[in-house]
Design brief:
With 310 residues, this protein is an alpha+beta fold. It is built from 10 helices and 13 strands. It folds into 2 domains: 2-129, 3-Layer(aba) Sandwich (Aminopeptidase); 139-302, Gcn5-related N-acetyltransferase (GNAT) (Aminopeptidase, 3-Layer(aba) Sandwich). Strands 1, 2, 3, 4, 5, 6, 7, 8, 9, 10, 11, 12 and 13 form a 13-stranded mixed β-sheet that branches. It starts with a strand and ends with a strand.
């Protein structure tokens, strides 16, 4: 095995590996990952993506990459082809990636949320000092679920997404995830500026699909732009939506508002001829998992989120 800096490789060398990864996303997660891979390819062509590639007998067997956000590093991808010993190569790639990241001055935190297409990664992450959290990738068949009565807004005003809600929604996310396990996993939720960056990533950039404003809603007090709850939705492949965010501010939780927003979004997607809806949820968040179970979602994949240090 030969490990090479990702910036020393070409798109052509990784083409078949990226295509294989894309097939996994489509088959296992119903997700068209080609938009994200096109973005990765542009960074590769510019020699601007940090990471590592494992070569076996001259063939690219796996790759990993990371990005930096101030004093935090994000492992953005790890994939090893099933044609090679996945666990061995994945561990080597993780070790190389983490060695490079930890050499960066002032690094305080590393986050990783990696789909297990390359075999289990819990042990190497734990060995590297990561705290691990199980997350579930869930799917709802919109055609089987059927239309719902989703208009019980408890006297609150429900609106479709509008860009004027960027800052109020960032505040909502910050308040909703105080002392929440998802705030441990994603520290963008811990501040309003971080939540605003998160919102711009899921609404303006292609990494989480194409934003669908017609299936994204906010709840607010009448006469105010202060938000009580929100659900945001993207299209991740033709006919497949993905809930990129659903949150309710403390004080309004436990009153069915999250359920109502999920049903409202599902009804909107159904009217737009969508067939499926997916989302991710942290297993430790039992209240949310139970809600999605009751709505008809089923878990189709589990994966690991890791944080260093805790």
């Amino acid at each position: 095995m030969n490990i090479v800096d990702l910036r020393q490789t070409t798109v052509r060398q990784l083409e078949s590996l990226l295509e294989e990864e894309s097939r996994h996303w489509r088959k296992e997660l119903h997700w068209d990952y080609r938009g994200a891979l096109e973005l990765i390819k542009r960074f590769l062509e510019a020699r601007a993506l940090a990471g590592s590639v494992a070569f076996e007998n001259g063939n690219a067997a796996g790759y990993s990459f990371y990005v930096m956000e101030e004093q935090k590093g994000l492992i953005g991808g790890l994939y090893v082809s099933a044609q090679f010993p996945q666990s061995v190569i994945a561990q080597r790639l993780l070790e190389e990636t983490l060695f490079a990241m930890r050499a960066i001055p002032h690094l305080e935190r590393i986050e990783a949320q990696l789909m297990p297409f390359s075999g289990p990664i819990d042990t190497p992450l734990r060995d590297q000092g990561f705290s691990l959290y199980t997350r579930q990738f869930m799917l709802l068949d919109l055609q089987k679920a059927g239309k719902t009565n989703s208009n019980n807004s408890a006297g609150l005003r429900i609106d479709r997404w509008n860009d004027r809600y960027f800052e109020p929604c960032a505040k909502l996310i910050y308040l909703s995830y105080a002392d929440h396990v998802d705030g441990e996993i994603n520290d963008q939720y811990r501040s309003i500026p971080g939540a605003l960056r998160f919102l711009k990533n899921i609404i303006l950039l292609p990494g989480c699909g194409q934003f669908v404003p017609a299936a994204s809603f906010v709840l607010r007090q009448p006469g105010s732009d202060e938000l009580v709850a929100a659900v945001l939705t993207s299209e991740v492949s033709p006919g497949v939506g993905h809930t990129t965010q659903i949150c309710v501010v403390p004080g309004f939780q436990g009153h069915g508002l999250g359920r109502m927003l999920m049903q409202k979004s599902s009804d909107a997607l159904r009217a737009l001829k969508f067939k499926e809806l997916t989302l991710t949820v942290t297993s430790e968040n039992r209240t949310a998992v139970q809600l999605y179970d009751r709505l008809g979602f089923r878990t189709i994949k589990s994966f690991t989120a890791g944080v260093w240090p805790r």
